[in-house]
Design goal:
Number of strands of chain A: 6
Number of helices of chain B: 6
Distance between the termini of chain B: 101 Å
Order of helices and strands of chain A: HEEHHEEEE
Largest sheet of chain A: 6 strands, mixed
Number of strands of chain B: 14
Radius of gyration of chain A: 28 Å
Oligomer: heterodimer
Helix content of chain A: 40-55%
Radius of gyration of chain B: 28 Å
């Protein structure tokens, strides 16, 4: 082999090693980036569950109020039933999609007796995963003017 | 040419080409990374803003100051009422949030103020957005309705809002006694039950984004003057408002389109909330143990159907006031009888 050819092969070998390290480094970096993006997406999904739960608890369609003063973490059971009935109308459901998106929102009574009112239920046909938030609430029963214990469950398909 | 010289020249050409390839490779990676980190920053900001506005919209009667991204935030609604805020190249729609804001906001921080829209029960929360680069001039005269509205605003506007109360004579072009733009990005003139004069501003307003609203009765007429304007300002058709939160919505909305789009959403929600209240009242009315309470659904029905009829035109929201006041009266009567209230 001639001297010039050997020199050329040397230069090429340096380039090959250089690009090998570069690609190795880049793939390592992109792997790290990917896991950071996945973690961010998970955080966003969890934030979405909390946001929808927070919105549900402060909805005028569900809240307990007396002369306009809202009671914290309280759901009016009769309002919840009537709101659930209203949401059976498809047009209304479309309007409330902006609030609940792909989620299931239900109110569970656990004491003195057990009961459940499913207010809104719309599954995302493209997603299997779901995240759940349960918030303990006081349930106001206006017909008897009494309170019960329960929880608001929000399942978000994201 | 000798063989050795050729070899040296070939080496240099090889080095230049390889160097150029390596430089181009790194340059493209840097460019890509730059755009990715800009997008990431915008995404983080927009997510944060979304979370902040959701939180602010859920907490009634609060005013909070939040740091603003360097690029500023754009707010706007299309003619089809697709409302969104934008940070950099990314945008996020309002979804169920009712936001009244300037079209662009920049500066050090941003003020979010939330008020419940009570008609008479809360039908939603309105979120108002402003900052210290936006100035509100409230123009009032000596008539009683004008002074009443001025007194109400002086009492209810939070300190964080950049407001100044002036007389119509102060909108003039001379240097003495006329209001001037002290380097504000946007200026809004709010005419409180007084005829607006929108053609005689001081020279300092020439390059300013000027908007305004004329409030009369329960009607609001918006106008907009463009920077470097040469003629009169553009005036929109009259839209109506109801309640204190509705009054502030006319003040903080950039233009008639932003007001119309957000108010339509709010009125639609009012009709749904009223329907839930009406159906709840029907159950209470039929309850044997509560017959002494004398529940009535007439006014709730009027409010619900009235709101549903007003969604598109927003022509006369003031007409809902009578039903709203009657419901408030019924609610107080129920409270006095120790009965479960309507709201």
């Amino acid at each position: 082999m001639k001297r010039a050819q050997v020199k050329m092969f040397e230069s090429l070998a340096v380039l090959v090693v250089f690009f090998f390290f570069l690609i190795f480094g880049a793939s390592f970096y992109f792997k790290l980036q990917e896991s950071s993006v996945k973690r961010q997406m998970e955080e966003n999904a969890q934030l979405k569950v909390i946001q929808i739960a927070q919105k549900s608890l402060t909805l005028p369609e569900l809240e307990c109020s007396r002369i306009g003063v809202q009671r914290e973490n309280c759901v009016d059971e009769l309002k919840a039933r009537k709101f659930a009935e209203l949401l059976t109308n498809e047009n209304v459901q479309v309007d409330y999609f902006k609030t609940f998106e792909y989620a299931k929102v239900s109110v569970h009574k656990i004491y003195p007796d057990a009961d459940e009112v499913v207010i809104y239920d719309k599954e995302d046909p493209n997603r299997q995963e779901s995240r759940v938030a349960q918030i303990p609430v006081l349930l106001y029963l206006p017909e008897t003017n009494h309170y019960a214990f329960g929880y608001l469950e929000v399942t978000v398909f994201a | 040419m000798k063989r050795g010289m050729l070899e040296v020249q070939f080496n240099w050409i090889f080095i230049i080409i390889a160097g150029a390839v390596i430089l181009a490779f790194f340059f493209s990676i840097i460019q890509k990374q730059r755009s990715v980190s800009e997008e990431k920053l915008s995404l983080a900001l927009i997510n944060e803003l979304d979370a902040i506005t959701t939180g602010a919209a859920s907490s009634k009667g609060s005013a909070q100051r939040i740091d603003l991204p360097r690029t500023g935030i754009d707010f706007g609604c299309s003619d089809e009422c697709a409302c969104a805020f934008r940070v950099g190249s990314l945008s996020r729609d309002y979804r169920d949030k009712i936001i009244f804001s300037p079209n662009h906001i920049e500066g050090k921080d941003i003020v979010f103020w939330t008020l419940p829209w009570n008609v008479p029960f809360r039908a939603g929360n309105f979120l108002y957005v402003t900052n210290d680069r936006i100035k509100y001039f409230f123009v009032s005269d000596s008539s009683t309705p004008s002074l009443q509205l001025k007194a109400q605003l002086q009492q209810e506007l939070p300190d964080k809002i950049n407001a100044e109360f002036i007389e119509p004579s102060q909108i003039c072009s001379s240097d003495a006694g006329c209001v001037k733009n002290e380097n504000y990005q946007q200026v809004k003139f709010v005419f409180l039950e007084t005829t607006p004069s929108v053609t005689t501003f001081h020279e300092s307003f020439k390059d300013t984004d000027i908007t305004g609203v004329h409030l009369s009765g329960s009607q609001a007429t918006f106008f907009k003057c463009y920077p470097q304007r040469t003629g009169d300002c553009e005036q929109s058709g009259a839209l109506s408002y109801i309640g204190d939160a509705g009054l502030f919505a006319t003040i903080f909305a950039y233009d008639d389109n932003m007001y119309r789009c957000n108010m339509q959403e709010a009125v639609k929600r009012l009709s749904y909330v009223a329907q839930v209240m009406e159906n709840r009242a029907i159950v209470l009315q039929a309850n044997g143990d509560l017959l002494r309470c004398g529940y009535s659904t007439t006014n709730l029905e009027v409010l619900r159907s009235g709101a549903a009829a007003q969604v598109d035109a927003l022509a006369d929201l003031g007409s809902l006031t009578v039903a709203a006041q009657s419901i408030a009266g019924e609610n107080e009567a129920l409270l006095r009888q120790s009965c479960p209230t309507i709201y």
